[in-house]
């Protein structure tokens, strides 16, 4: 089992897409283990996006991400990081394949609806940044008995 950090960005929240986006992850068999609805401040975003600090889009990205509330999720599942990145699609909405979240809901480069961790190291760092340890909830969804078989979990 792996965990990943997902953020439904301000454009996704403002456009009323929270339910549809979270629903896709639930449909796929990912388990919500953490959830916070909040506005992000610039210092937290500076840490979160520290790898992009020198990029020309950085200032606009931090402004966009701090402008309006976001939904932050920790999701758990087998290969959750890879599965979620595939479901998100390519970074820019106009390049993202139909069937992906970015491909189905947007055309923008910066307003691309969703963030997802891109590696196990990033996931651990980002979950630690957005959640206190006691905000991550261990639980067993009854349906998982029919989502994963023993071979998936081996
Ligand atoms: P990712 O979200 O697909 O992992 P990153 O390269 O990590 O993409 O970029 C982080 C975020 O910065 C993107 O999701 C997008 O919102 C924004 N971004 C990336 N490249 C550009 C750009 O060239 N113009 C405007 N915004 C960008
Ligand atoms: Mg990234």
In short:
With 154 residues, the chain is of the alpha+beta class. The chain has helices at 10-14, 18-28, 42-48, 58-66, 80-88, 101-105, 120-130, 150-153; strands at 2-8, 31-38, 70-77, 114-116. It has a single domain, classed as 2-Layer Sandwich (Alpha-Beta Plaits), CATH 3.30.70.141.
CATH architecture: 2-Layer Sandwich
Count of helical stretches: 8
Question: What is the CATH superfamily label?
Answer: Nucleoside diphosphate kinase-like domain
User: How many discrete domains?
Assistant: 1
The major sheet is characterized as: 4 strands, antiparallel
Element-by-element helix/strand order: EHHEHHEHHEHH
Which distinct ligands sit in these coordinates?
A: inosine-5'-diphosphate, magnesium ion
Summary tags:
8 helices; Alpha-Beta Plaits; binds inosine-5'-diphosphate; alpha+beta; binds magnesium ion; 4-stranded antiparallel beta sheet; 154 residues; 4 strands; 40% helix
Please, could you describe this protein's structure?
With 154 residues, the protein is an alpha+beta fold. The protein has one domain (2-153): Nucleoside diphosphate kinase-like domain (Alpha-Beta Plaits, 2-Layer Sandwich). Helix content is 40%, strand content 17%. The protein has eight helices and four strands. It has helices at residues 10-14, 18-28, 42-48, 58-66, 80-88, 101-105, 120-130, 150-153, and strands at residues 2-8, 31-38, 70-77, 114-116. The chain has a four-stranded antiparallel sheet. The longest helix is centred in the N-terminal third of the chain and has 11 residues, at 18-28. It is globular and about 45 Å long. It starts with a strand and ends with a helix. The chain binds inosine-5'-diphosphate (IDP) and magnesium ion (MG). Inosine-5'-diphosphate binds at residues 52, 57, 61, 91, 109-110, 112, 115, 118. The site of inosine-5'-diphosphate has 9 residues, from loops.
């Amino acid at each position: 089992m792996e965990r990943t950090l997902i953020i439904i960005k301000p454009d996704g929240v403002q456009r009323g897409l929270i339910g549809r986006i979270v629903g896709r992850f639930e449909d796929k068999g990912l388990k919500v283990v953490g959830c916070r609805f909040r506005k992000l401040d610039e210092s937290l975003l500076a840490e979160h996006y520290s790898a992009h600090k020198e990029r020309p889009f950085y200032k606009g990205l931090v402004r966009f991400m701090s402008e309006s509330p976001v939904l932050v999720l920790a999701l758990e599942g087998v290969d959750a990081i890879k599965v979620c990145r595939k479901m998100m699609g390519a970074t820019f909405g106009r390049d993202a394949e139909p069937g992906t979240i970015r491909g189905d809901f947007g055309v923008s480069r910066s307003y691309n609806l969703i963030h997802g961790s891109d590696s196990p190291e990033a996931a651990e760092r980002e979950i630690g940044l957005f959640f206190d340890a006691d905000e991550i909830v261990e639980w067993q969804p009854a349906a998982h008995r029919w989502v994963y078989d023993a071979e998936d979990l081996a």
